[in-house]
Amino acid sequence: xxxxxxxxxxxxxxxxxxxxxxxxxxxxxxxxxxxxxxxxxxxxxxxxxxxxxxxxxxxxxxxxxxxxxxxxxxxxxxxxxxxxxxxxxxxxxxxxxxxxxxxxxxxxxxxxxxxxxxxxxxxxxxxxxxxxxxxxxxxxxxxxxxxxxxxxxxxxxxxxxxxxxxxxxxxxxxxxxxxxxxxxxxxxxxxxxxxxxxxxxxx
Length: 203
What we know:
Elements: H1 4-19, H2 22-53, H3 56-73, H4 79-108, H5 113-128, H6 131-141, H7 147-202
């Protein structure tokens, strides 16, 4: 399950615990502060290329892979993993919101885009209500150790992501079959005047 606000709010305390160094955690936090806006701008052309050239299912697969990778790196107590996690996170964040709007458009159409995308954002907001519970779980149940929570979030993100990708693939095949039937019917109807004209000519 992708929970960016939890990572943003707790990045310094997470790495203070995992790396055992206030100095290293502060450096990673400072790097994150600069990387977040820069990553959003730098990722824009890449996001455009991905959305233009990948199918919805493929785009969501990339998203699931990145979410899972962020979760895995977030559970590794190493400096290189921390910086890798930050880089992937700042690229994932704009990609996530862009991909969700693209998904809502391509799967449900423009007619219901507002309702579907609004629902997605609403659900994301509702998930944020669990942040105090996640914080309490991290700092009380696990004595400040963020690794168990990060592992669980990564696992949930992977499972729900795979379910979403499978749903999109199945729905896409249904739409393709429906479109093929409609195209065949249109083609059949377009041939009717020709057959009528041929029969009249033979008479």
